[in-house]
Amino acid sequence: MFGVVRRDRFLRRMVAKVASDTLDPTDWQAIAIGGADARPVLYIPIPKAANTSIRTALKPCFGLAGEVIANVHQDSRIDKRSLRAGLAAAPADAMVFTVVRHPALRIRSTFRNKLGWRDASRPLGIKRRFGHAANLGIPRGASFEEFLSILAQTPEWALDYHFKPQAALLRHALADPRLELFRFETINADWPGIAARIAARVPVAPDGTLEYLNATGRAAPVFSAAERRLIELIYCADFETFGYSWDDLGAGV
Fold first, then answer.
1. Residue 181 pLDDT > 90, yes or no?
2. Under DSSP, is residue 182 helix (H, G, I), strand (E, B) or coil?
3. How many Cα atoms within 13 Å fall on the side-chain side of residue 158?
4. pLDDT bucket at 73, cuts 50 / 70 / 90
5. How far apart are the first and last CA of the chain?
6. Taking the mean position of all CA atoms in its chain, how far away is CA 34?
7. How many domains in the chain?
8. Which of 139, 194, 217, 252 ranks highest by number of CB atoms within 10 Å?
9. Cβ distance 46 to 166 under 8 Å?
């Protein structure tokens, strides 16, 4: 009951922010790379789709090669802009790219990363509470099906970017002819070519290989029938927009 009350209060706050024009829930983020003014490369990050690995590989482009950064997502020296502003400022011939992932595996990875109790890297081995999950009233020990059920009851625009469909995050970019879509499933093979193209456009090249960072395991999960139906309900646009299907997972369904 407390979770329902907390979710209702959270949604009321979000609606008030939209009404007061302090929140645009349709906008997202872009990382602008290159020259001092018009940046010739724009990377649109998707959480749990090689995002941490790519940001880390881009560190040299911002003069951060060799630096140990506690949180590469928060470092102010990396040029983060709103997606709409980044697209508007990018040159007509800019390289604009993103990486998408199978929606079922992405949300399962998010669940394992953000929910639960155990985290060996934390003091006493207790995982830090993920604020947005708490705001939605998702119990720390929720099952995957319970987690999906609460997401399905939440308006898409109010979902955190870890939970929001990729097509929604990319809403302002999908119609842009400059956008190039790469897949998480092949990004290790694709990255050297991407890095070489970035290097040809910017003063300092990114790393040519990707580290395997912020990963939650490589084993393909098995999804129950109920989980599949909920994933299809929440992420139908991702399946349709990016051409994914359950057949892509083979025995992992």
1. yes
2. strand
3. 21
4. confident
5. 33
6. 22
7. 1
8. 194
9. yes
For residue 39, CA distances in Å to 5, 30, 177 come to: 45, 11, 17
Q: Which secondary-structure segment (H or E) carries 30?
A: strand 29-33
Amino acid at 30: A
Please give the C-alpha separations between residue 93 and each of 12, 29, 177, 193, in angstroms, as whole numbers: 42, 20, 10, 18
Residue 150: give the domain boundaries: 2-252
Q: CA-CA distance, 235 to 227, in Å (whole number)?
A: 12
The one-letter code for the residue type at 166 is Q
Q: Give the Cα separation of 248 and 230 in Å (integer).
A: 18
Q: Which two tokens stand for residue 240?
A: 């349709």
Classify each residue of 170-194 as buried b or exposed e, where b means 16 or more C-beta atoms within 10 Å of its C-beta: bbbbeeeeebebbbbbebeebbeeb
User: How many angstroms separate the CA atoms of 95 and 176, rounded?
Assistant: 11
pLDDT digits (tens, 9 = 90+) for 12-33: 999 999 999 999 999 999 999 9
pTM for this one? 0.91
Q: Quote the DSSP letter at residue 70.
A: S
Q: Which two tokens stand for residue 146?
A: 């319970």
Specify the pLDDT at position 199. Answer: 96
d(CA 82, CA 93): 19
Report the C-alpha gap between 6 and 134 in whole angstroms.
Answer: 8
